[in-house]
Amino acid sequence: SKHVIKNILWTTAKNFTVERGQQQIEELISTWDIHESWLHHSEFLEEEELKDSKRYHYRACWGLPTRRKPIPRATASVYFVIVISKFKPDTAPVEVFYRLESSRLIRRPEQCQFREKWLQDIIENKIVCTERL
């Protein structure tokens, strides 16, 4: 069965602010099919000035706290970049990309449905690594 990829209506370059970017990332995350036991916090990391664009970097850090272990043994981060082109009109929507901390693969929200399994894999790999040490 083909999954419908959920995306949101991204703000225009003209209306973009760092706070608005973070709100919209939260809005995007709310469309992801992730069990409610997962908790996350998001934060703005930095602004990057390039020749052709401005890039705004954010991070959402995920964990699975439980009653027994309120501080998760490991966390998984998803890094977001919001790109504002210097060549497109300021009425054009911003472009958004994300990648998982363990991966160099860059994904676009409108082309790829987020999977909870990606977070589970990162955390399981970290726990296996720490147990080996």
How would you characterize this protein structure?
With 133 residues, this protein is an alpha+beta fold. It has one domain. The chain is 23% helix and 29% strand. The chain has a four-stranded antiparallel β-sheet. A hairpin with a 3-residue loop joins strand 1 and strand 2. The longest helix is centred in the C-terminal third of the chain and has 17 residues. It is elongated, with a radius of gyration of 16 Å. This is AKA14 protein. GO terms for molecular function: protein kinase A regulatory subunit binding. InterPro entries: AKAP, AKAP_28.
Determine the fraction of residues in helical runs and give it as a percent range: 10-25%
Order of helices and strands: HEEEEH
Residues in β-strands, percent: 25-35%
Low-confidence stretches: none
The biggest beta sheet reads: 4 strands, antiparallel
Rg, Å, rounded: 16 Å
GO molecular function, one term: protein kinase A regulatory subunit binding
InterPro entries: AKAP, AKAP_28
Organism: Promerops cafer (Cape sugarbird)
GO cellular component, one term: cAMP-dependent protein kinase complex
